[in-house]
Amino acid sequence: MTTTTSTRSPERDSFDSDIDRVRAALGAGTRPPRPSAVSTSFTFGWRALLKIKHVPEQLGDVTMFPIMFVLMFTYLFGGALAGSTRDYLQFLLPGVLVQTIVMITMYTGHTLNKEIHRGTFDRTRTLPIWQPTVFIGALLGDAARYTMASTVILTLGLILGFRPEGGLIGMLLGVGLVLIFSFSFSWIWTALGLLMRSPESLMGVSMMIIFPVTFVSNIFVDPSTMPSWLQPVVEANPISLLATAVRGLMAGEAPMFEVMWVLMASVVLVAVFGPVTSYIYRRK
Amino acid sequence: MASELAVEAVGLVKHFGQTKAVDGLDLRVEQGGVYGVLGPNGAGKTTVIRILTTLLRPDAGTAHVLGHDVVKEADAVRSRMSLTGQFSSVDDDLTGVENLVFLGRLFGYSHRGAKERANQLLDAFGLSEAAEKLVKHYSGGMRRRLDIASSIVVTPDLIFLDEPTTGLDPRSRNQVWDVVRALVAEGTTVILTTQYLEEADQLAGRIAVIDRGTVIAEGTPNELKASVGSGALRVRVAEAERRLEAQAILERVLAEPVTLEADPAALTVRVSDSQPASLALAELAREGIDVVNFSLGQPSLDEVFLALTGHVAETETEDAA
Question: What's the ipTM?
């Protein structure tokens, strides 16, 4: 270490001289006080955001997907269903917001399932932290993605002529409710993400749940146009209730029944699938 | 508490469907130094490590790590050991520094503290220049070093390294060995699994040999080698017609049966270490037998297993005798 060469030496040389520093670094690794569950959750959320920063392509599902949906449904069905695309948009947009966000929740399970098969998951599982923060943190990161998708949909809607009575506050309340429900709904995917063997098989199962649940709802059409046997199914669908609640909020109304119902459903989803996820995770 | 064992496993069993990955395994590892766990692919090494690091629950038996039960006191175990798994546990989609800051934060460092610690580790592991690069662009050796750095963000009392050098080039492997020695010098106990006898020999104070989910031999490297027997000296003489003469000389000097190989100029003889081997080569030279080439090999892991399970190696000797 007394001489310095003018050119940067290859890796091997630079590393050899560092063994003493490895020892010094080892000696310096004193344990700080244990962090709170809130703090570790935010650390996982922070990591999720960093990944978005480094791999922005993965935002395709929260940008292109919603744009495609809004444009497709507005212009394909608008004329037939509501007489004009502009009128239909007032009805459709809150629904498309619900559908898109609920659909992209399934990427939560997909991401988790991919992680399991990597060593990163083993690393976090051997850390002395409150383990459920792994999921809470990932879902916080996802909530950021849902927010982005919501912004895209509302912006596009406003450009196309969506003019809600509830104004900005109504829209924010509507988005807030969608986010709360989606965060809770995602716990289904964390449980499935841990159970399924591969991201592909998980995708298959997710689609089988998501498609009927979002389409057999009042998102696209008024249930009164449906056959009588189907109407009760559509009306009982939680997604219909959510869509009705969001429509109401954005229209400047106070749909208390639907809002309370959605909040209750959210609590139940977390209360059931949170512990189920933790149980599967611990047993794995 | 100084006398507590790093690992104490009794009667561990783990099934995966019909397969018994771990089958009544007992293990006692003292604190300090490197303990090698040696075995072929599929012997159950990784499963044992996963049980000891709280990633898998055993179907039967108990295991304590630094005095804590791995099932009932998983959290206490996690706060004292760390694992560098067989598959890279660093995040490809983050940079080197982000990987370490992330872990530092989870251990309870402030953002600034985590950043300082990360830079210190990157510097120590010769990764400063790659700190801001995404890990997916790292070489295998760099990734391994970052992985090990990740395991010592907070200095553990015990570190598990699961096949840390598999797939690395010799230079990177040497670097990992250097790091392992540094860990030990700083007082961390290292438990290392490997498929390479040489690696266990280089690093480990004691070795357990695992086969079919159970420990089939345990001891210091020298004890194990003694039980295995030896390596082999292979000699190729210049004139094939003088091979029998060479055979007689080698048998006289080494007092071991000499095998004639299919190659009409080659002979093989078991030797305990290099000294008698060089004496034997000198004796061949003195008798005027030219040797074209020779090699002195450690017994391969296959040979170790054959010897430890007590089959082929002995039969061979009998055949030759």
Answer: 0.79
Q: Do B89 and A43 touch (CB under 8 A)?
A: no
Q: How would you label A54-92 residue by residue, b for 16+ Cβ within 10 Å and e otherwise?
A: beeeeeebbbebbeebbeebbeeebeebbeebeebbbbb
Q: Which domain holds residue B276?
A: 230-298
Count the residues in chain A: 284
B206 and B100: one domain?
Answer: yes
**Can you tell me the distance from the alpha carbon of B228 to that of B299, in angstroms, rounded to the nearest whole number?**
8
> With contacts defined as CB-CB under 8 Å, which chain B residues touch A43?
102, 105-106
Using an 8 Å CB-CB cutoff, list chain B residues near A125.
Answer: 54-55
Residue B93 sits at the chain A interface (C-beta within 8 Å): yes
Q: Which chain B positions have a beta carbon within 8 Å of A122's beta carbon?
A: 53, 55, 83, 85, 87, 89
Amino acid at site B43: A
Residue of B nearest to A36 (CA): B108
Residue range(s) defining the domain that contains residue A186: 36-283
Per-residue pLDDT tens digits for A55-67: 888 788 788 888 8
From A170's Cα to the closest Cα of chain B, the distance in A is 37
The reply to whether B99 touches chain A by the CB within 8 Å rule is no
Average of per-residue pLDDT across B270-297: 85
**Per-residue confidence (pLDDT) for residue B309, from 0 to 100:** 60
Residues B123 and B31 in one domain: yes
Position B233 pLDDT exceeds 60: yes
Cα dihedral B86, B87, B89, B93, rounded to 10, equals 160
Residues of chain A whose pLDDT is less than 70? 1-18, 284
Residues of B in contact with A283 (CB under 8 A): 57
